[in-house]
Design a protein that fits this description.
By secondary structure, the protein is mostly helical. Helix content is 76%, strand content 0%. Helix 4 crosses helix 10 and helix 10 runs antiparallel to helix 12. The longest helix has 29 residues. The chain starts with a helix and ends with a helix. The relative contact order is 0.11.
Length: 262
């Protein structure tokens, strides 16, 4: 019990079992608050479960989810390639203004850019992917470029003492040296794709997707179905986040030791 009470004291470490007890307790409290909510218009958990079954077996939620998931993965792959290239190139002065300009794009709303992206990429799936890539890239570059620029100069000097040329220094210090941080930035920004999904699939509904389904249910005020779709997106997003973290631990087992030293 002392392990649980330690959780209420600042700067204390607690055991995994104590953490599990706290998480289970908070989840139970949240469920009780939901069940006893004073807002009668909100659907109850059993209504959401029945709505999920109807969406999955009768309205093709699984198929729509795969459509959105595959599109999100494609957009995420393009985002990784573009963002990492721009972030690593900030060590080259000629490319630094480009990365800075792209990072400022995070202040732009997609509503005013839809027409421009339609002209550049057409409609349908290319339009939706381009909007998702833009939404994630501007934040990814902002975070990752900061990681690269914060590398201590001593690491560059140490690599040069090993008689590496400048591009070899970039490979060893910038790319390999920040690989663990790149995965963390990826985890933080991958969720943006799911957050923007409803908007981009609402712009072009030709292929469907959970975003379009969510908008349709919301339009008709089917709140149980809306909650069911939102919870489905949340679960898939959490699984994606876990998958990225697991991949990081498998490919970079030293990363956690590095974080402990920090």
């Amino acid at each position: 019990m002392s392990g649980v009470t330690s959780a209420f004291v600042p700067n204390r470490a607690i055991s995994r079992n104590a953490l599990r007890i706290i998480v289970a307790s908070q989840a139970a409290i949240a469920l009780l608050i939901w069940i006893n909510s004073p807002f009668k218009v909100l659907p109850q958990p059993d209504e959401v479960f029945r709505a999920f079954r109807g969406l999955w077996f009768e309205q093709g939620l699984g198929r729509e989810l795969w459509t959105s998931f595959s599109m999100n993965l494609e957009a995420l792959a393009l985002t990784i390639v573009i963002s990492l290239a721009l972030s690593y190139l900030v060590v080259v002065p000629a490319f630094r203004p480009i990365a800075t300009a792209i990072s400022k794009g995070r202040f732009l709303g997609l509503a005013g850019l839809t027409f421009l992206f339609t002209l550049l990429f057409g409609g349908g799936r290319p339009l939706k992917i381009s909007l998702l890539v833009f939404s994630m890239t501007v934040f990814f570059v902002t975070s990752m470029a900061s990681v690269v620029l914060e590398i201590p100069r001593e690491r560059f000097d140490h690599a040069r003492t090993l008689r590496m040329n400048e591009w070899h220094v970039v490979w060893e210090v910038v790319i390999l040296g920040t690989a663990d941080r790149a995965f963390e930035v990826l985890r933080q920004n991958a969720a943006i794709g799911w957050m923007m999904l409803t908007m981009v699939e609402g712009i072009s509904r030709s292929e469907g997707g959970v975003g379009a389904m969510l908008l349709n249910q919301n339009k008709h005020f089917h709140l149980a179905e809306v909650f069911a779709i939102q919870l489905t997106i949340l679960v898939v997003g959490l699984l994606q986040d876990y998958g990225i973290g697991l991949t990081r631990r498998l490919l970079l087992p030293y990363a956690d030791l590095t974080l402990e030293k920090r």
